[in-house]
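Can anyone check this?
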Amino acid sequence: MWLWDTNIVRAFSDERVDGHDRVRARLEAVGPGAVGIPVVVAAELLDGRLRYLNAAHRLSARQLLVAFEQFNATVRLLSLFPVVPFDEAALEVYRQRRLFPGIMSRADRLIAAIALAGSHCLVTRNVSHFLPVQGLVIEHWIDG
C-alpha cells in the first residue's frame, strides 16, 4: 500500500496546489484501494481544521460557515481512503531510535514507523525528511 504524507493529500484535494494533476493521475493508475492515509496525517489535517474552526467564531459569521464547510470537506476526503493506524507494530518500530538518525519531527517519525511496520511505501514531497530512515521505501509523485 502507498501511504500519503500530508503534502500529497493536499496536492490531491486542492487543484490549485502544484502537482494536483500528477497525484490524481498516479492515483488513477494504482487505484484508490492501494492508497492509505496514516492516522498521523489524518490527525494533522483535522487539527488544522479544528484550529481554524476555533478561531473563526471570533472573525465573522461567514468565516464560521467556511470553517465548518472546510472541516466537513476534510472528513469527506478522509473517508475516501483507509486510515492506517499507529498500532503495536508501529510502536515497536518507533521505539527503535537507531532507525531514525538525525533530526526528524515527531510526526515524521510516527509516519515512518507506520510505513515500516506495515511494509508500506511512503509517498511524500518531503523526501529529504525521510531519506535517513533505514529500510523505508519512498516515492515522490509530484516532482519525480
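Reply from J.R.: I decoded it. The CA atoms of residues 18 and 81 lie 21 Å apart.
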